[in-house]
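Example (one chain per record):
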Amino acid sequence: MDLLVKTLGASPSDRVLEHILEVLPEIEPSASAAVPVVEELAAKQDDHFLRYEAAQALLKLRSPAGFGVLASLLAAEPPLFVQQNAGKLVDAMTGLSFAIGVGTAEERARARIRFQDWYVQNGARVRWRQDRKRFE
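Predicted structure:
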């Protein structure tokens, strides 16, 4: 575990980062120690796909910080594929449907705004509910 965290902090290639972000949640609970490093990585990453992967890893590690990464990512209007994946992730992790990445460009913009509004209102207090297997 320590080796993975050190590798994340060392800024390896994008491919290596992607693989580490995918396996971290599988190591849980010891992987929760990687949350601060993943948050830092997401904050300094320009690549939309890697930011999505970081958000996904954070949420799978039960860290609500992943919603902040997604809010920032979606505000930057990433490629449609990233928006669609983010939408599926948000829906799965909240049990809500924002329709992110669905419909016309105008509908997608409204969906991003709905998620941003939800995040502003709920982001600071949302917590993982093990009994429901989602954030509330």
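Caption: DSSP finds seven helices and two strands in the chain.
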